[in-house]
Amino acid sequence: MTETRVGIVIPSFNSGTMVAEAAASARECLGGVENIVIVDDGSTDRQSLKTLGSLQRTGFQVHRQENAGVSAARNYALTHLRTPYAIALDSDDLIEPGAASIAADVLDAHDDVVIVTGSGINFSDGASPQQSAPITPGALTREDMWRSTMIATASAFRLKDWHRVGGFPEGVAVGEDWVFWLRLLRGGGRISTSDAVFVRHRNHDAQITRGEIDPRESSKAANLVLRENVDLALAHSEDLIDELCRTRTTLAAYRHAYRRIDQAKVRLKSLGARLRRVQPRQS
Predict the structure, then answer these.
(1) What's the pTM value of the predicted model, to 2 decimals?
(2) What is the spatial distance between Cα 152 and Cα 99, in angstroms, rounded to a whole number?
(3) pLDDT digits (tens, 9 = 90+) for 146-166
(4) Which of 95, 205, 256, 282 is the most buried (most CB within 10 A)?
(5) Could you tell me if 47 and 69 are in contact, meaning their C-beta atoms sit under 8 angstroms apart?
């Protein structure tokens, strides 16, 4: 049976052949390719470009943009959907066959639900394939999401709500889904958690969450959450004060440890400025 109420968007950047597997799982989930949109976020890898070209030739919508990040790719893909509901699937993950229909039934029946999520399975393939038991986020509220996201990116939402809140935050490389979920929940809607498995998360060496995360990037999401959810911040004021104190202590320790290097940098900068002033002008 074809599921026409839900569209699936898949951002891809140098995803190799994994994006083909993600697209195939989306096709099985929806019963066709009409409401699947893939956006290539400026891939440079030859295998990735070959895979995307093959997907386009077999009927998938494949759009390309200059590299602008996963949020920009998702937002661009979502503009091409004409369905009332959407799911954003990462290019290295797989969506389960019944997820879209289960989510659509919930959204049809409950106007106050803004997010429908389900359980997830972690897996790895290759020489020693492994798979976890289903992991459920349980019943969740906006309050539960204050510190970090508790649900998979491959959860369902309304297109009108995505548009209303301004979409996924562009320029945020880590935690962008966390910001987006809280934007949806800020208006008073709730999360519905299904008992069904929605997504299979692939563990592999290239995924960003397994590498060294730049703290400057992760702080962008945390700062956006703080600025956009002042009521939650005030409700957790003691925790924030404790965090501020720890941050000041850590910063002071770094300043003390690197004070001589910083002093040397200042002297070198001053010396460079003086040298530039005394250099003779060339005619």
Answers:
(1) 0.87
(2) 12
(3) 999 999 999 999 999 999 999
(4) 95
(5) no
